[in-house]
Amino acid sequence: MSDRARRGRPGHDQQTVLRVAIELFNRQGYDATSMGDLARELGLTKSAIYHHVPSKESLLERALDEALDELSAALDRVQADTDATPAQRLRLAVRTSVVVLAEHLPAVTLLLRVRGNTPAEKNALSRRRDIDHRLAEMVREAAAAGEIRTDVDPLLASRLLFGTVNSMTEWLRGDVDVERLADAVATLAFDGLLRRE
């Protein structure tokens, strides 16, 4: 093996470093996790970790962007579906949110735990508020179209719907049939638990 083939840091790419960082941030808390903790978890020296990432906050920002970018893109696709009624789009937004959460569970879990203590967290909270407003607007549109009940405030309805989705970060573990889970959440949210005769 030549010297050229041996150069560089062994064993870890940026994505691996990010995955391990997200897991540590979720387990220990962002503030309580040091770059030294991350280096130890990866089996690197503290100085070697900076070959992969410039700072701890850059890792946090990338992790939060992963969750927010996926959710924003999913909502863009839902809202672009002009063939669907407002209620169908809202139902699809709930369903799609479940899929994003399940497929990006560690990053979404981290997103839901941020409190605005850093610039990255403040930016993430601002982006979350924008998403909340988009979802509330989808509820308003469905209510205005007469497709869903109008006696519940749209922002409250949106928070209850997506609070249900977000609560899955507390119990969702292991292998799960994501499509089946998304269908179940959408069915309960829109059709309820009562049997229809």
TrEMBL record:
Taking every annotated instance into account, which residue ranges of this chain make up the domain HTH tetR-type? 11-71
Specify the superkingdom. Answer: Bacteria
Which InterPro entries does its entry note? Answer: Homeodomain-like_sf, HTH-type_TetR-like_transc_reg, HTH_TetR, KstR2_TetR_C, Tet_transcr_reg_TetR-rel_C_sf
PROSITE patterns, alphabetically?
HTH_TETR_2 (PS50977)
The leader peptide range reads none
Q: Give start and end residues of each DNA-binding region.
A: 34-53
Q: SUPFAM superfamilies from the xrefs?
A: Homeodomain-like, Tetracyclin repressor-like, C-terminal domain
Q: Which UniProt keywords apply?
A: DNA-binding, Transcription, Transcription regulation
Carries keyword DNA-binding? yes
The record's Pfam families line, in alphabetical order, gives: TetR_C_24 (PF17932), TetR_N (PF00440)
Q: What is this protein called?
A: TetR family transcriptional regulator
Organism (species): Nocardioides flavus
Classification of source organism: Bacteria, Bacillati, Actinomycetota, Actinomycetes, Propionibacteriales
